[in-house]
Amino acid sequence: MIQFDREHQVFKIDTKNTSYVMGVVSGRYLAHIYYGKYIESTDLGYVLDLDSSSLQDAVFNEGEKVTLLDRLPFEYSFAGTGDFRQSCLAVTSSAGQQGVELVYDSYEIFKGKPGLDGLPATFGDNAETLEVTLRDEVLNIRVVLSYSVFADSDALMRSCRVFNDSTEDVYLDCALSACLELGGGEYQTVALHGSWARERHMERLPVGFGTYLVESRRGISSHQSHPFLALVSPDCTQEHGEAYAMNFVYSGNFFASARKDQFEGHRMVMGIHPDGFRWKLAAGDVFQAPEVVMVYSDAGLDRMTHIFHDLYRNHLIRQRWVYQKRPVLINNWEATYFDFDARKLLSIAKEAAGHGIEMLVMDDGWFGRRDRDDSSLGDWTVNEEKLGCSLKSLVEQVNALGLKFGIWLEPEMISPDSSLYREHPDWALQIQGREGGQARNQYVLDFSRPEALGYICQSVFQVLKSANIEYVKWDMNRPLTDAASTYLPKEQQGEVFHRHVLALYAFQERLLEEFPDLLLENCASGGARFDPGMLYYSPQIWCSDDTDAIERLKIQEGTALIYPLSAIGAHVSDCPNHIVGRNTPFATRSAVAMAGTFGYELDITKISEKEKGQIASQVKTYQENIDLIQQGDYYRIASYQRNNLYDCYEIVSKDQTKAVVVFVQVLAEANMHNRLIRLRGLKPEAVYQAGGNCYRGDALMQAGLPLKRLRGDFQAEVISLVERK
Ligand code: DGJ
């Protein structure tokens, strides 16, 4: 419910368990008052403590305006006029001057949640929205802050639009999406960091007076950093304590920061990175900033995770696929790399079909003259000479074996060695007079140029129409550099990064309009663009190029902190693992891939008969657990990342009648008792059967589930629990 208490000039947004409160100070500024556990009262203006000696003068005395701006907890901060903390909005006027002052203008509360023009965003029924309008009277710009909630979720969705109501063009130097002011107290940051093949490792640090910054300037959300930031109470565990989290529904450069101020308040912000961003807001134009999802939990990280998972499953991922059983696939990348033809692919498909695998995915190397990673991106024509047949014929033969067919694409790129580049060198992003920097031997296409975007769309669609292709893996293998365009005028060069993301979204939207049943999996050199923006288009995203089961424990823990397991691309691959060289049992690889979209990525014709013999039952176990994996509540029981010994997670059905526990012993220890693993989320009074034994829920949650010590490193166990009626 959303309300405005006119008497106290307070806005209050309630979800079932939370309240978010802001108020108008002196009829002029919009200040943040409270975010946290549900509060009944709207009489909360006192929290701002305006009568205290430090603020009193400032509020009522124009001579202390800067003093006020320097200390008020703003709902949306602005630069250049007295708030010296992190700003959300920075504008350069037509006179080249910087400075904004946003004052309260009006509000509207309505049913529903409008879409965000050109951007992915949460959607769904039973929503309510508050829009608060702020104005800069000198620049004549208007900022509309938007807050939405869904009846079935404790998340709060925020975004904003900036309107230029003047007759002069202005430039947005910074237009972040959300700001959250938390008062005094101690907080720690929880963020996800990494590198290629090492994505989304969790890091936790105390917040101090220096700025804690999470950012990407790579044009993608990136391997290195993640558009997520949480401030948690120092006592926050999986089950207890407070967490305030922000997650950005955006796939390009981002900026999220937190710091303590001089009064020990904390400001956390999130939005498009101001570096590499300068948006010309012409007279009469509007700029839409992307959505930030905010989650508050007073029951630790598990609760935060559940709110994100449910929100993304019910209000972000397209419903066509979210709860649909996805085909168990086999991908040829780690099996063959670029060295394949139709005969090789068909031999994989044939063997796979015999073991219950349901789809073959042909990865990189089927087009142009691409036998290595140094050519042909942009030339989306099938290399029939290499394949030995047409795509249509290959797909028909795969379908005849009872398998669906999927294909790999990398539409945002252009190889210097391609017909497309030779014909249109100006279609690559480039800085005048400077040789473009290549990464993986490729340039990025300038998607702000309509004919480049149109041409690639058309050639990709042509391929997809030429055969019965039911799945696309959309890859993206380098960061954006030389982010300048030969198409855009000079005053719009600061728009290239954001325009690339907008064009990518428009492209994927068109793709799904054209092929509504297509199963799309996004990917970016592994998991460099695993973010809510991409999830809006694809129900699953390739999580990491590191398929080693042990490395994956850390990567998948960080990913599942926010994203539902049904979104996490995970495959069983061959050993020694191609990235780290580690040998792990086939069963462990399967147990770990089960906490995701489950598939295979190996040459099934070459693995041992013993391993082949396990595939059908692995697929069966996955399918038996699919409802839990796609719909259940995920609990992090133990973290190898933190204890260096073992990992354990549990998935419980919403009705608490079923659960599955995955336990991975990374390192064996000598001379120890068996383990007792305390489960969570069960009905205390119910009796659950686990293997041949029965336990009451309260015993499993308090005393624990007994697990026999496994022999050897890298061993896994999957335990199913079913309520006995
Ligand atoms: C990076 C992806 O993450 C891999 O799975 C594979 O598709 C390669 N690109 C192909 O170039």
CATH architecture of the largest domain: Distorted Sandwich
How many structural domains in the coordinates? 3
- Number of helical regions: 18
Small ligands present: (2R,3S,4R,5S)-2-(hydroxymethyl)piperidine-3,4,5-triol
**Which structural class should the secondary elements be placed in?**
alpha+beta
Distance between the termini: 39 Å
Q: What is the number of beta strands?
A: 38
**CATH class type of the largest domain:** Mainly Beta
Q: Which percent range fits the helix content?
A: 10-25%
What labels would you give this structure?
3 domains, Beta-galactosidase, Chain A, domain 5, 38 strands, 725 residues, 9-stranded parallel sheet, alpha+beta, 9-stranded antiparallel sheet, Immunoglobulin-like, 18 helices, binds (2R,3S,4R,5S)-2-(hydroxymethyl)piperidine-3,4,5-triol, TIM Barrel
